[in-house]
Write a structure and sequence with these properties.
Elements (H helix, E strand, L loop, with lengths): L2 H8 L18 E7 L3 H14 L4 E4 L15 E2 L6 H15 L1 H5 L6 E2 L2 E5 L2 H16 L4 E4 L1 H7 L15 E5 L3 E2 L2 H14 L3 E3 L4 E7 L2 E7 L2 E10 L5 H8 L6 E10 L9 E4 L4 E5 L5 E7 L11 H14 L8 E11 L6 E4 L5 E5 L9 H14 L13 H4 L6 H4 L4
Parallel strand pairs: 1-2, 1-12, 2-9, 5-14, 12-19
Antiparallel strand pairs: 3-8, 4-8, 5-7, 6-7, 10-11, 11-12, 13-16, 13-17, 14-15, 15-16, 18-19
Length: 413
């Protein structure tokens, strides 16, 4: 055992730095109240304080810190989307991620792996070629590769033609990466707290006070607090919280399940995704295979796990990696995905004045954490929507100007 670790364990006084103090009482008012202490809400608080010097901010959450979808995702980071709007947006997020550990002075376990989106049909190959061309035009390093190149980069994949869904090719996205999801949330939370932001967990929002179409207070189970602006970032509970503010969203909430195996020695470096099989897998730093699939086929506000998901996922996983058949599954869980009709987020202004929203992330919210926090902080601070997120405005559904990302969601449909 390293001497430093032994000294740490036997110290009479806890030598580690306390990230957050004991919970304070809520102030009577704040300049900004952020509803949701997940990755997006914490990132917005951090950038409000760091870039705009707005520190009279309260982040509220009815649960524990980052205990919603941030704690339940599978931590894949990529920007190989289909639309120019989506590629530009996620590319900024990837670039922010690459320097985030240095910015926080906090190990996020960011690991660039490369990302394969497998194609098993001619239609999937056409979509991969389309995405590769869009990516290249946007300056994102992605290309269409064929079986010989796939086998060279990932020899563990079953490339046999004698299977139900043979691999015809893939979209290979070089910057594809993974990171430690809770470390990202804690890094943002610690950075925000150090700059004066208050984080109040176990504080449930029960309603809003709105006068003449403008929000001016937030009601909670700990009392009512006045506010200048509100940012809602609550993932699966988006429609419920928006309903408290008096407006409806084109969003439905659907369970999204995932699981991990027992840890084994590293053997899988790239991230493997198959939209046709509705599966994806990566190997964590601890050696677990982190696996997931498509959302459940029905709306439900629940995070229960099902045997159906596990059976279908394992069936396809064994076709891709037959040798994992004797590995044991350790844990299975679910999150609540807030899905929009065009598989793109909803960001920016709402029908309520000074009430902003960051929602509709479905199965791809973690990868957008830095760019969402940065651009939503800019929106809240200036009252103007940045060009980068303008295509994702709520009003696009009234203007019939959807940003169709279903072809790049891979396993989100």
């Amino acid at each position: 055992m390293p001497f430093g670790l032994l000294k740490y364990a036997l110290s009479k006084q806890y030598p580690g730095e306390r990230h957050f103090p004991a919970r304070k009482e809520l102030r009577p008012s704040y300049d900004v109240v952020i509803v949701g202490a997940g990755g997006h809400g914490l990132a917005a608080a951090y950038y409000l304080a760091r870039e705009w010097n707005i520190t009279n901010v309260a982040v509220l959450d009815k649960g524990y810190l980052a205990g919603g979808n941030t704690a339940r995702n599978t931590a894949i980071i990529r920007s190989n989307y289909l639309t120019p709007e989506g590629v530009r947006f996620y590319d900024e997020s990837v670039r922010l991620y690459q320097d985030l550990a240095n910015e926080f002075d906090y190990n996020l376990m960011y690991s660039e792996r490369g990302h394969f989106t497998l194609a098993h049909t001619d239609a999937a190959m056409r979509t991969a070629r389309w995405r590769a061309e869009v990516n290249k035009h946007m300056g994102v390093k992605s290309e269409l590769v064929y079986p010989d190149e796939i086998a060279r980069i990932c020899p563990q994949l079953n490339m046999s033609r004698d299977v139900r869904y043979p691999i015809l090719g893939a979209l290979y996205h070089y910057p594809g990466a993974i990171a430690r999801h809770d470390a990202v949330a804690w890094g943002y939370a610690r950075g925000a707290h150090r700059r004066g932001v208050e984080i109040h967990t176990h504080t449930e929002v029960t309603g809003f006070e709105i006068d003449n179409g403008r929000v001016n207070a937030v009601r909670t189970n700990r009392g009512t607090i006045k506010c200048g602006k509100v940012l809602q970032a609550v993932a699966g509970m988006t429609s419920v919280v928006a309903g408290m503010a008096g407006f409806k969203l084109p969003i439905r909430t659907i369970p999204l399940q995932a699981c991990v195996t027992e840890p084994v020695k590293p053997f899988l470096d790239p991230i493997i995704v198959s939209g046709s099989l509705h599966v994806y897998v990566s190997q964590s730093a601890r050696g677990e295979l982190v696996m997931g699939g498509s959302v459940d086929p029905y709306s439900l506000y629940n995070t229960r796990s099902t045997l159906d998901f596990k059976e279908e996922l394992i069936m396809h996983m064994l076709e891709l990696f037959p040798f994992i058949g004797r590995m044991r599954m350790l844990r299975q869980w679910a999150g609540m995905a807030d899905m929009t009709p065009d598989f793109s987020p909803v960001m920016g202004e709402t029908p309520v004045q000074n009430y902003y929203i960051d929602a509709g992330w479905g199965t791809w919210g973690f990868k957008a954490t830095p760019v969402c926090g940065k651009r939503m902080a800019e929106t809240v601070a200036t009252g103007k929507v940045p060009d980068l997120i303008a295509p994702f405005a709520l009003e696009r559904f009234y203007r019939f100007a959807q940003v169709g990302e279903k072809g790049a969601a891979s396993v989100g449909h």
